[in-house]
Amino acid sequence: MTDRSSTVAVVVLFPDLLGTYGDGGNGLVLHRRLQWRGIASDLLEVPSGSPVPETAQLYLLGGGEDAPQTEAARELGTDGPLHRAVEAGAVVLAVCAGMQICGVSFPDNQGRPQEGLGLLDCVTVKTDEPRAVGELLVDADDRFGLPPLTGFENHGGRTRPGPSATTLGGVRAGVGNGDGTEGVLADHGDGRGKVLGTYLHGPALARNPALADVLLAWALGMAPADLAPLPEADAEADALRAVRLSAATRGNLDGVAHRTWRDRLTRRS
Ligand code: GLN
Fold first, then answer.
1. Substitution candidate for ligand 1 out of 21, 126, 154 with most atoms within 8 A of CB
2. For ligand 1, atom 6, which residue shows the shortest CA distance?
3. Ligand 1 mean position, distance from CA 127 (Å)
4. Nearest atom in ligand 1 to 131's CA
5. Of 90, 118, 122, 260, which one has the fewest beta carbons inside 10 Å?
6. What is the pLDDT along the chain (269 residues), one digit of tens a residue?
7. Cα dihedral sign for 30, 31, 33, 34?
8. Other C-beta atoms within 10 Å of 100: how many?
C-alpha cells in the first residue's frame, strides 16, 4: 500500500494550527539534509482541513496554543491517515503541543482532558507549576549516540511518560517533561514506525542536526553513522550550538531568569 519509492516525502502537518514556534523549519532541515546527500526529497505543507497523505516517510507536528492543538487532535483522530503511516513505517517528530496531542490525553484550553492520538504512551496535565519558558538543555540517552541537545521551551503542560514509553533523555537545564526527563519515544517495532515527542523548540533540528540525522536514519532504515557527513552545513549549526549551550549552561537564559524578567515587565505595565 505504501509508495516507498526513491523520493523521500517530508510532511509538515497543520502549520496553520501548530506553527506558533517556527517548528515548520524542522521539515526544511530534513528536506535539505536529504537533498545535500543527493537523496530526492519532497517537502509538503499540509494545512488543517486538507487530506493527510498516508505514504510519506517523515511527518512533523509543531507547537501551538491550547485551542488549536485540540482542533488538530480532533482532526487527526485516533485511527486516521497518520496512524496508518506510522503502521507502515513512517517516522514522526512531534514538538510540544504536537507531542502532547500524540499522547493518550492532554488538557484543552479549560484544562479539561481531551483524548489524544494514542501514538505515544504519555499523559499531559496542567499543574499549578508556573509555565516553563526558557532554554532547555538535554542530555540524550546513550542509545541515541547524540551530543547534548539544545532548544527553547514554552509550555504550561507537564507530560508523564507511561510504562511502555522511553524518553529522549534527561534535563540538564530547563523543565522538559517536568519530572527530570525530556521527550517521549514510541518505537512501534517490526517494520512499523517511530514517534518521537520533545519539548525542544528552536526549531530543534536546526539547532541539533545530529537529531535530524537520527530521524532520517530511522526513516531510511539505516544507521546514522552511515549517512554522509555534512561538514559545511554543520559548521554553521555548531557555531549556533556553542552559543546556546553556553547560555543554557550559564543559566542566564533558563526559565527562572525569564520568569524574573517577565515579572518585572508585568509589574511595570
Ligand atoms: N499549549 C501547550 C502548553 O502550553 C503547548 C505549548 C507549545 O506547543 N509550546 O502546554
1. 154
2. 155
3. 13
4. 4
5. 260
6. 334 458 999 999 999 999 999 999 999 999 999 999 999 999 999 999 999 999 999 999 999 999 999 999 999 999 999 999 999 999 999 999 999 999 999 999 999 999 999 999 999 999 999 999 999 999 999 999 999 999 999 999 999 999 999 999 999 999 999 999 999 999 987 778 999 999 999 899 999 999 999 999 999 999 999 999 999 999 988 888 898 888 888 765 444 444 444 454 444 33
7. positive
8. 33
Catalytic positions, please? 96, 201
Ligand 1 pocket, Cβ-based, cut-off 6 angstroms: 21, 63-66, 69, 96-97, 100, 154-157
- Residues whose CB falls within 8 Å of the CB of residue 154, separated by 6 or more in sequence, listed in order: 21, 63, 96, 131, 132, 133, 201
Is residue 127 within 8 Å of residue 191, measured between CB atoms?
A: no
Which amino acid is located at 116 in the chain? G
8-265: CATH architecture? 3-Layer(aba) Sandwich (3.40)
Closest C-alpha among 173, 170, 156, 151 to residue 25: 151
CA of 193 to the centre of ligand 1 (A): 25
Between the CA of 105 and the centroid of ligand 1 the distance, in Å, is 14
Q: Which residues pair with 182 in a beta bridge?
A: 169
